[in-house]
Amino acid sequence: MRAKAPQIYGPQGKISCKVSLPARFNPETDSCPMVILMHGIFSSKDYNPMPAIAKGLAKAGIGSIRFDFNGHGKSQGRMQDMTVEKEIADAMAVYSYVKGLPYVSSVSFLGHSQGGVVASMTAGRLAERGEGPERMVLIAPGSVIKEACQGGKFFNARFDPADPPEFVRCWGFMKLGRQYLLETQKLDIYGTASAYKGPVRILHGTKDTIVPMWCSERYLETYGSGAELIVVEGENHTINRRRSEVVRLVVEFIGRNNT
Fold this sequence. Notes:
The chain has helices at 50-59, 84-99, 114-128, 144-150, 178-183, 189-193, 213-223, 243-255, and strands spanning 2-3, 8-10, 13-15, 17-20, 32-38, 63-67, 104-112, 136-139, 153-154, 157-158, 167-170, 174-177, 200-205, 227-232. The protein is α/β, with parallel strands linked by helices and 259 residues long.
């Protein structure tokens, strides 16, 4: 079932969310694990793989909340003003909301592409204060955003990394602002992520032409024995070739000792 959309606010305003719960679930009497789903840059909560993952989790008795980061989808704010730090603040706001729900038995994170970076850094920040997700799934975590901004090339946009313009256009219509282009160069992605010590499953397709495999391999090194990397043969970055397999791998991991 789908619960009523919550009222959650981040740095750029209201965050658009969708909560999906198992069939015949009664929030007043039942409990379930909950997964916070974080989409990638230029994507949204309503773009796959997020809806498919939410559906798969619900069938397994696991709830989820997926949301649009600031400047994306139906959330407030401008894409041009988006930064990774602001997305972390959005994720923190959603986490605080979910932790306050009486029917939630545990909280896990899932992030795709840049959402994987945000999920990992949010988990690390939370771990530093003694809390955080039970489990975490990273799908093609896009830590390459740092190197892209340092090299002055983000998708098809070119710029001077030392002095970027007010904004650049990716594919002619997606605007990335100067603050994003400068701040992303200095992110301590793996250092921040490393504070999280819970179980991590990393999924990455062999046909991903957006995020290179070394990003997932570096995350695996960062997390050590607490993580596993599953390479999905033939899958691409948008998870539309072997989506059912990816969903199965997500549900299997999140549901382990958790339902």
